[in-house]
Specification:
68 residues, mainly alpha, 4 helices, 0% strand
Amino acid sequence: GPFGGGSLHPGELARLIVADAIEVVLAKGYISEGEAQEMIRFATALGCTLDQVRAMAAHLSPWLGHLR
């Protein structure tokens, strides 16, 4: 794999990338609506389900309610 041996499952790698991105955005103490929407688009583009996104970041929950 492209990341030194490919020992991570692609889904786990996606989860780690999204979790890190959320932490970076939250470093200022909050997440804006635009940032939340981008994080959701980013996560789903990497193959994460909306349930996985919910599990990773309760901060995104207000913007996940209308998505199915």
